[in-house]
Amino acid sequence: MLTLEGVDAGYGRVQVLRGLSFEARAGEVTCVMGRNGAGKTTMLRAIMGQVAVTSGRIRLDGAALEGLAPHRIPQLGIGHVPQGRRLFGPLTVAENLEIGLMTRGRGSRTRERVLELFPRLRERLDQAASTLSGGEQQMLAIGRALCLEPKLLLLDEPTEGLQPSMIALIRDTVRRLRGMGVAVVLVEQRIEAVLDLADRVAFVETGRVALTLPAADLSPAAPQFARYVGV
Ligand SMILES: Nc1ncnc2c1ncn2[C@@H]1O[C@H](COP(=O)(O)OP(=O)(O)OP(=O)(O)O)[C@@H](O)[C@H]1O
To answer: What CATH class has 2-77+150-229?
Structure first.
């Protein structure tokens, strides 16, 4: 599905990713963990073509992503829910979803499925995105990504700062997408969430994946959490 091999990437002269290799598989949740500044967000941004990849290969079902214009990448069926959500604040809920639908040429059936998943959005279709609560904004950011009918979904700490009911809803959504065969990449720092959701866990350290393990091999007290996450 998705593979990164020996990827170097960064911001101008600041190299962040250093020979990073990573794999995400269809129908699996791969959690990405690591200390602050390890390069987790930058890895997602490299996949999305938002940072300069200076070396290495990024492949989606064998097709090269590195070097593509950033607007081409969502069109291939890659949804990205960045930290901070990046919604179009002055636009309504309906308009934000429309942008997702147009990007990949999807129509009302897809929209309907997204609104079934998040009924709260249906009640607020005409409301400006900037006036939604934090949890509703996160639903909209995920809903917009799902309007692409993605085969790969990248989620950057999607439950940060949200209340328990919203966290449960987002986790249910992740499980449902996995069940539909979507490859989910989830940057997540909470061990309990990772053990609950992950099929595999990739630990990022100073710009590379230092270790990938099946989640079944980890327990809350596993030494890898202390070593790579510092908890
Ligand atoms: N726009 C930028 N310009 C220069 N350096 C940046 C930029 N964005 C991030 N960095 C640097 O890249 C490094 C990796 O940042 P990144 O956001 O990928 O880390 P992270 O693992 O996601 O951390 P966190 O857990 O804190 O979100 C950091 O040292 C950061 O300061």
So the answer is: alpha beta
